Amino acid sequence: MSAAMDTESTYSGYSHYSGHSKKAHRQGRDRHKSPRSKDGSRSEKSVTIQTPPAEPLLGNDASRAEEGQDDNWGETTTAITGTSEHSISQEDIARISKDLEDSVGLDCKRYLGLTVAAVLGLLVFLTPIAFILLPQILWRDDLEPCGTVCEGLFISVAFKLLILLIGTWALFFRQPKADLPRVFVFRALLLVLIFLFVFSYWLFYGVRILDSKDTNYQGIVQYAVSLVDALLFIHYLAIVLLELRQLQPMFTVKVVRSTDGEARYYSLGHLSIQRAALVVLENYYRDFTVYNPALLTASKSRAAKHMAGLKVYNVDGPGNNASGQSRAMIAAAARRRDSSHNELYYEEADHERRVKKRRARLVVAVEEAFTHIKRLQAEEQQKAPGEMMDPREAAQAIFPSMARALQKYLRTTRQQQYHSMESILQHLSFCITNNMTPKAFLERYLNPGPTLQYDRDRWFSKQWTLVSEEAVTSGLQDGVVFVLKCLDFSLVVNVKKIPFIKLSEEFIDPKSHKFVLRLQSETSV
């Protein structure tokens, strides 16, 4: 019980460690004393003000604590939990209010488009029925009798309208995947074409049939059948323009994430820039590993430390005899810069060693926990059916034995902000319910997964901005570059056209593969 409480307190927030805070306090006290030199010179006049780097809000505390952690940090530190995770400024408030206004405008535009499409679709389906019913209502006594052919046309109209209704539902009535900045050109053209088509049919119907009160009812029904046939052909045209045209690959796009340089390649067909951006984002959430800003803090701090070693200040002016000292400082800084690759090498080697060690500890702990749960399941089978353990209770029972090793590994690999204790318990109970192995349970934590694997509040990228020099409704072309920006990073997309491939054939004579094997009459036995 105590182990479970310790684990819950550890996962309840971002931790600050007292041992490191004391060390930071002593360093800060020494830093305030450092401007005073031993010889009483005027070095205290040299003040350097550095603005804090623009790093992500999450993962900073964990990365700073990781630099000075040892393997026994759990026994020598005190965990203090808090409720604040993010800070917000006036610029953030203004940006949030602007995003809310934009979202309201997008919702209005989306509902307006859906309303127009629904009204037009209702008009399309009611028009053939109205063509058939209006003569029966207005001048029924003057109509010629409907024969067998006319009654057969009723069945034809009914089934064609049913087919058209199902095809329209399958093609157009889908849940929208995204809000695009501009209208879909082909869909708008189809709506305009359908409107003009139905309007022209109504105009002809009003002038030639309603005004003259045509008595040839079979001809009126045949006119309604021709309308339904034309609507079916327009639906076929919509399938070609909206679905089939983009299937053949014509372009290859390279997508690069601006922060860590991770890249993927995709093949696209004839698409507009905004629809190509939508396809790229759909593949991004599936193929790219989740964006982890904590992995970038180490490289940023290392680069800042090396750049700080190159700063030299001459406070006393050019007339002083400190030129030799300045040259010595420049030479020392150059030597330090030349040896930076050694520091990087040993730092990465030490990090890999710690990751491998904590990974081995985690694997052993999880295997022992799953062995324990199998033993518990064997014991529960011997009990009464009413005393069987729930998978959630089993997960809570074995979780404390692996919690410490799992937390250490997640902190070392800087993944702790993506896995809460509740999500780990849910995944563990899921693995127990489906009788999964320890390797299946560890797969989520040993290797960073795609963005869709994590909760939506961990994505760091929900709203995107498309930046393009070309119009977003124009089609893809060779050499087009556009950028998809979110709050913390951006995706740079470079479009290249697939080259024309000329394939030739070379004929090989079948007789060229034949050969003759001649054996000598005298052979050694």
UniProtKB/TrEMBL annotation:
It holds the Pfam family Strabismus. It comes from Melanocharis versteri. The gene is Vangl1. The keyword Cell membrane applies. One of its GO terms (cellular component) is plasma membrane. This is VANG1 protein. InterPro entries: VANGL. Signal peptide: none annotated. Belongs to the Vang family. Residues 74-86 have a biased composition (Polar residues). Coiled coil: none annotated.
